[in-house]
Amino acid sequence: MTVKATVYVSSTCPYCTMMTNYLDEIHVPYETINVTIDPAAGQRLVEMTGQMGVPQTQLNGKWILGYDPASVHAALDA
Prior knowledge:
InterPro entries: Glutaredoxin (IPR002109), Grx-like_ET (IPR051548), Thioredoxin-like_sf (IPR036249)
Protein name: Glutaredoxin
GO molecular function, one term: electron transfer activity
Domain Glutaredoxin: 6-64
CATH superfamily: Glutaredoxin
């Protein structure tokens, strides 16, 4: 199975950068969706998760809120 993440970020979020850097470090490919540039994507994100903060990462069907390496590994091991 190929693992790929989707990371919702904003333009000024340091935790978003930490999350994408971490995924790079552990070689997990990802797509980045910037909610600052695409507010409609941000609205869809809130509708899907009920959360307004970023980063939010969808990985293996699980949602990870914030920069949370332990949750990344839990999703990868699932």
